[in-house]
Specification:
The complex is a heterotetramer, with 2 copies of chain A (152 residues) and 2 copies of chain B (164 residues).
Chain A lengths: L1 H23 L3 E6 L11 E6 L13 H18 L4 E5 L7 H14 L4 E5 L3 H4 L4 E6 L7 E4 L4
Parallel strand pairs in A: 3-4
Antiparallel strand pairs in A: 1-2, 5-6
Chain B lengths: L1 E8 L8 E4 L4 E6 L6 H11 L28 E9 L10 E9 L4 E5 L2 E3 L1 H8 L11 E2 L6 H4 L2 H11 L1
Classes of the chains: A alpha+beta (152), B alpha+beta (164).
The structure holds adenosine-5'-triphosphate (2 copies) and magnesium ion (MG) (2 copies).
């Protein structure tokens, strides 16, 4: 079990080296075992983030958008290491500004070459990158129905 | 395993049988106004994968996932089916597998694989180690994305172990 | 103290009767004392919401956008009852779809006739309703500066 | 009381003196890319109004609100001033009042009203009952709007009493 955890950490960190700078146009992030506890099996796992041009900060000083993007870099790195058969992301882009949405969509397109991605979003720019659109409406109040949606 | 088709009936805001067929590759986007039922689709996926906690499905009791309308319109049960496409598999194995979960208003729950009645354990076993178990990193709920950064070191360890 | 609480509840409920249907194009909401506890000073306060065309539901079944809009109806109702000198709202519109953003902006414009409203937002449609825009940038990494922004 | 001007210096991501003059009526929007410092402005307003909890300001210790840059650039103290315009005061009263809060790296804190040194109590007293106290309904943090609906009945009662 010890080696498996060690391997997973190394594997995710290798992916983070590529994925994090793609999302933030620079900077770096890595997972590390916490200092406390003697045996590897008692330790927790820290996530350290360094944003381009900013001092290394603890995660709680990050802004709303920076937190969301850092979290996505971790989720995507785990994904590249062990692609789950499909993934469902519910409005994970809500806090992102225009340019971060573009970088997010670009990376999502790369992931979707190997895995199935299902995305719930309100953002028209992110919708455009989808290959298939499912529209849900409530014409009759309280009753959800599917409609086919055309991208203008 | 890929998600080929999802069918909901009587689950949350979907009283009538509704079916989504997903392309096996690429990005599918689910769009629509506030409150139309988008997140209910993710709840349906978690439910059919065996989720046992009502709270994770934004309900107080599991019975609340069964459709109940404004006009007193009720349905007798909630049912979600998911058709998964296995990749690779040995020659003899079927390419597709269908998992179904049903809950009756009286409280009786049924689980089926390819139409045959099974126990919850069998469904949980099916999804173990594939990363699609209900608590996996592959399903990210609305408003929860920053949880991956805000969680404590020990919770993060559980997440990483699931991926290991 | 008892009468003051009672008056505040009645006052907010009167405002909710006007504000909630404006945001949801129908429906209603009200504050009520909880059943538990004998003395008014021990009771908590419930918030009941009925969306147009949907059964009365407990708040946790609401969607992300419905929760945000219900919360805003409560905040604005308190505001109309006792206008605070100024209010600051940080990305409260993140979960709202297009049409709810429009209704939100309309109500905000009404509030801003009596109070000062300071709004942090990424949504261009909501920005358009502002009388004054303050742009913040980080040209030098890690250093925030103010720039004047023109609406296109 | 209206918010006429806010000046920050050495507070969070604002090392250089930066001043925002707000129109006394209407909507002012603060816009910019992720991480540029928008929410830090709301933190500055809460801080100068007397907020004592670092957690509410997204910091682990109050010292963390003092600017520290990537290049090791440091400032000696964080300072925020707010100029408020009183409405309809009595003849003799001044129309404007300026409240200032300063925190030195060594830990010393200073509070000033119109340039005169005061105690924190005096500032908290000034804002009592106006709805602009630091925990009021009038300041809504990022990601917190749904808290007003998700909070328990007793917490909601505290909120309503503040408005009463
Ligand atoms: N058992 C049920 N019967 C009928 N309707 C239900 C049931 N459970 C939930 N709902 C309704 O489903 C709606 C919420 O749907 P959902 O959360 O999927 O919306 P959404 O499309 O994700 O919206 P948003 O964009 O705001 O996040 C609520 O209005 C709720 O009343
Ligand atoms: N003491 C400090 N010194 C220097 N920089 C700081 C300090 N405290 C916070 N910061 C920086 O401020 C930035 C966060 O700013 P803020 O939360 O205001 O962003 P924002 O404009 O609200 O972004 P978003 O749109 O993503 O919410 C972080 O990158 C953080 O590193
Ligand atoms: Mg939703
Ligand atoms: Mg922010």
């Amino acid at each position: 079990c010890r080696t498996r955890l060690r391997e997973a950490l190394d594997g995710i960190n290798r992916q983070l080296e590529r994925v994090f700078p793609l999302l933030f146009e620079g900077g770096s992030a890595k997972l590390d075992l916490t200092k406390e506890g003697s045996d590897i099996l008692e330790k927790g796992i820290e996530f350290m983030v360094k944003l381009p041009g900013k001092a290394v900060r603890s995660l709680h000083l990050l802004s709303g958008g920076e937190k969301a993007l850092s979290a996505l870099s971790l989720i995507f790195s785990i994904f590249f290491l062990k692609p789950a058969p499909f993934c469902v992301l519910d409005e994970v882009d809500a806090a992102l500004d225009e340019s971060n949405c573009v970088r997010f969509s670009r990376l999502l397109t790369e992931i979707s070459k190997r895995s199935q991605v299902i995305l719930i979003t309100h953002n028209p720019r992110v919708m455009e990158t989808a290959h298939r659109l499912f529209g849900v409406t409530m014409e009759e109040k309280g009753v959800s129905k599917l409609v086919s949606v055309r991208l203008e | 395993m890929r998600l080929k088709r999802l069918t909901v009936k009587g689950f949350k805001s979907f009283p009538d049988r509704t079916s989504l067929t997903f392309p096996l590759q690429g990005i599918s986007a689910i769009v629509g106004p506030n409150g139309c039922g988008k997140s209910n689709i993710l709840d349906a996926i978690r439910w059919v994968l065996g989720e046992q906690s009502p709270k994770i499905l934004r309900a107080r009791s599991m019975e609340e996932v069964i459709y109940s309308g404004p006009n007193g319109r009720q349905v007798g049960y909630a049912e979600v089916s998911i058709v998964l496409e296995r990749e690779g598999g040995t020659e003899g194995e079927k390419k597709e597998i269908e998992v179904t979960r049903r809950l009756y208003r009286r409280g009786e729950a049924k689980y089926l694989i390819d139409g045959k009645l099974v126990r919850l354990k069998d469904i949980l076993y099916l999804f173990m180690d594939t990363g699609t178990g209900t608590r996996a990193y592959a399903l990210v709920d609305q408003g929860q994305v920053t949880r991956f950064v805000e969680m404590g070191p020990h919770e993060r360890r559980l997440l990483i172990e699931e991926a290991a």
